[in-house]
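#random but structural
TW: two for the price of one
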Amino acid sequence: MARRKGNDVHGILLLDKPHGLTSNRALQITRRLFNARKAGHTGSLDPIATGLLPLCFGEATKVSQYLLASPKRYLAGIRFGVSTTTGDTEGDVVALTDCTVTKKQVQQALESFQGEILQTPPMYSALKHQGQPLYKLARQGIEVERQARPVSVYTSKIVSLNDNLLMLDLSVSSGFYVRSLACDMGQMLGCGGHMETLRRVAVAGFDIESSVTLDQLDSLAERERLKLLMPADQGISFLPPVELSVDAAYYLVQGQAVKVASAPGSGLVRLYDKDRRFIGIGRILDDGRVAPKRLLAA
């Protein structure tokens, strides 16, 4: 029998992804530093982007999909007057427009991108068409029709506007493309635009200030690295907690729905036993009982 590779490492690490690395490459480097058997990230950042990339190890990977679907906050740099093939600095320049964009114009344009909007994903994205990533088709000069998707802009604040470079503080839903926003705003202002910089500064309840760089990780001893891992339930702190009695926890772990007087009326919940140990995620059924959704290994 082949021996399993790596250690059983569990928890969430907040990585500050550097410029130039894919999210998957950053994950693999970190995984090797921890010698972890199982790991995954919670939503890709483009290679040119930097910032917060929560990484889940071991049993914490069971909460990664909920982090993936959670709101994100970015500090974006949008350059007006220059359009590129990719919507960012990686592509070729296809149009230059002599223009001077004012703060008032930008503010008016931003009003069209508030709340729930329909956004067409860029061709240079990891979304797939008939099994092929769109960016691979784009590199072959193939453009396919993309369905506009509902996304949300919760807040947008102008940080600065100098020489047609807009710095924008954005809080958005999962699935939002800042590159698409840059191109759409540029088109609306009649001068074109592209995303020049992007830094993710928050994911769900996590903040960039609590993150660590790859260089910092590399300089630490193994014991110090492990101290940086947070428990899995911190990744879903936005879900309400439900404490189970000994009997309720027993039956729920067996796959049965249970009655819990303190449970909310609907939605997903964090599940804890009487000793406040996190045991997984539950969902509230129509009859008010709590059913297991995703449980951690005992």
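TW: number two ↓
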Amino acid sequence: MKYYTGNNTGDVPGNLPDPYFWWEAGAMFGTLVDYWFLTGDTTYNDVVMQAMLHQVGDDKDFMPANQTRTEGNDDQGFWAMAAMSAAENKFPDPPEDQPQWLALAQAVFNEYAMRWDEATCGGGLRWQIFTFNNGFNYKNSISNGCFFNIAARLARFTGNQTYADWAQKIFDWEMSVDLITPDMKVYDGASVNDGANCAGHDLIQWSYNAGIFLHGSAVMYNITSGTDQQTWKTRVDGLLQETTGLFFNNSIMIEQACETVNLCDIDQQSFKGYLTRWMAGTTQMVPDTFDTIMPLLQNDAQAAAAACSGSPASGFNGRPGTACGFKWTGNSFDGLVGVGQQMNALSAMMYTLVNKQGSAAPVTAATGGTSKGNANAGMEAEYGPPKLAEITTGDRVAAGFLTTAIVFSVIGGGIFVVK
């Protein structure tokens, strides 16, 4: 948490400092919710609560005024998934006069449903919400993956079939436009610019795209039966096979599109942490994946520990000797430091605490969940309806592409100590 200053007097709760984008802070707080659940350490709970509630916005939908102009669908989704994790893990509920975790996730789901764009490609979310942001004419897997993942988890938590129907619809759409292939490759996105109907696919495969669909598919397997369940099991198996084949080198996780050529940007340097989270979550929803996934995560934990031996470096805010590098395959510190690297290593460590017997699966409303929902949340939000796609302005502001979570310097203190 040495990188996070939002809880300091005069700073903005929930924000990470430059050069980190807003969505990455949402991913960070999702990681910290899981950290509390897996370890029982309440040290950061008040900070997490303060940050997440400060960023909900006037419409209680994670569209705060200080982010709205540049916010994309994927950015909003990472905050909503953090709220969903809080509901599933029974993270302390906010005071009654504050927005509740489940209702926040439902608000984002409802706004996504209103933004579903059948005018191009027969459906799908655009990357950006507003026309004036770069990426509005692009439909990408991470935005639709956020929608899919949230829908599947809401279906499981609430038992409402409408959410499950949407999850099915989103996955089917991804396949219909070849963003997910029959052999379960997940491509980045496709253009709808100048009348293009999801043409010009970007065929790059990122680990977090594979992970978000893997986990959502596992949740759908968990709540279905019969032929529907078998369909989702086939998808889980295919996504897992593609993931382990593409994003692991000698059983150690890599970001294959950029890591081997040293071109990963700040966002991409955090993706491994999300894949780790979603692979661990998959074992809870589809138990027979445990024996495939957990040995890989255990290997990653050892490799990450070896990479977390760095001395103080430019941009590192933690204790000497606890700087974590980006690459895990070299069995040493590579000198690349930041929020993403620390979060990746924390994730590699803590998600090995998930096991077949000791870690309870995420709760539902029927199995002890206490978070209160609102099925109509977000329906009246100023920024929810598709009409916002028609807003015009001369400004061109690059939206923050998705990513990561703040380093949490428990990796030098609470989770493990590297000398």
